[in-house]
Amino acid sequence: MPGDIVLLGAPGAGKGTQAQILRQRFGYRQVSTGDLLREHRAKGTELGKAAESFMERGDLVPDSLIIKMVEGELEGPGAVLFDGFPRTVPQAKALDVLLADRGRGLPRAVYFAIERAALEARLLGRWTNPRTGRVYHETFNPPRVAGIDDEDGGPLVQREDDKPETIANRLDVFEAQTMPLVAYYEEHGGRLVSVDATGSVEDVAHQLVHAIGVEHAH
Ligand code: AP5
Predict the structure, then answer these.
(1) Does the pLDDT of residue 76 top 90, yes or no?
(2) In angstroms, rounded to a whole number, what is the distance separating the alpha carbons of residues 117 and 120?
(3) Looking at the chain, which terminus has fewer C-beta neighbours within 10 angstroms, N or C?
(4) CATH at residue 85
(5) CA–CA gap between residue 20 and residue 36 (Å, rounded)
(6) 9 occurs within a structural domain
(7) Residue 169: which domain range?
(8) What string of DSSP letters covers 128-176?
(9) pLDDT for 87-130, tens place per residue?
(10) For residue range 138-156, what is the model confidence (pLDDT) as tens digits?
């Protein structure tokens, strides 16, 4: 089994879409901090309540809360795809330590390269199955029946943070706080590869499989 992978990219770059594909095809375990936080909010946990105002503004939830939440997800079989985590240099450093403490190697990172101008259209047209995290796009990747998940027939919803003003803040936050991780993974062990995230879903999946070398593992 290949090692743990960090999917690094702006909101709307396609991390969740690709994580689901790799999970289905190669048996990775997906750890999406955005999905976990939305579950906490739906259940009304203390963490969910603490995260709410940050998420509504499109700001990052404090590192200490996120790192504690991820620590609880690390036990279990198989390699992990981290989707939307880490998002700050302190989170990246903490992940390296958490994995080393468990005798796992350092994760490699894949950067999803895409122009900011393409991201708003992706986020404004997104529809999600809140129970499974599966994502669609009304134009680029539509379900067979509008508003209904192809797989479980349940209703699709639009995320409350996919509004123009919140999207703009999320993209600013990404550039300021998460882009430094590109240098972090390059400089700490040459652990970064990039994919061109502007192509079709299948095209990006193809690049990703090559970039992480998973096609040779199965
Ligand atoms: P999170 O849920 O992680 O959202 P995000 O990073 O903003 O990422 P997205 O889910 O918006 O985008 P994606 O790259 O997964 O794109 P997707 O595949 O859906 O985080 C939400 C919030 O939680 C944050 O703002 C923050 O408050 C908090 N949070 C989460 N993690 C945190 C952390 N570690 N630290 C602190 N705070 C944290 O695709 C988007 C759309 O495009 C879809 O409609 C899809 O169908 C379409 N699409 C995908 N690929 C393609 C393609 N190749 N061509 C055309 N369309 C495509």
Answers:
(1) no
(2) 7
(3) C
(4) 3.40.50.300
(5) 15
(6) yes
(7) 5-28+78-212
(8) E-TTT--EEETTTB--SBTTB-TTT-PBPB--TT-SHHHHHHHHHHIII
(9) 999 999 999 999 999 999 999 999 999 999 999 999 999 999 98
(10) 999 999 999 999 999 999 9
Residue 142 lies in a domain: yes
How many domains are contained in the chain?
Answer: 1
- Residue whose C-alpha is closest to residue 37's, from 24, 21, 56: 56
The answer to whether position 108 is within a domain reads yes
Residue the block writes with tokens 């972090």:
184
Is it the case that residue 216 has pLDDT exceeding 70? Answer: no
Instruction: Show Cβ contacts of residue 89 under 8 Å, excluding neighbours closer than 6 positions.
Output: 180, 181, 184
Q: What is the pTM of this model?
A: 0.94
The phi, psi pair for 72, rounded to 5°, reads -70, -10
Residue whose CB lies within 8 A of the most ligand 1 atoms, among 15, 73, 200, for a mutation test: 15
* 51, part of any domain: no
Whole-number Å distance, alpha carbon 214 to ligand 1 midpoint, is 23
Query: What is the Cα–Cα distance from 55 to 198, expressed in whole angstroms?
Result: 26
Length of the chain: 218
**Ligand 1 centroid, distance to 217 Cα (angstroms):** 27
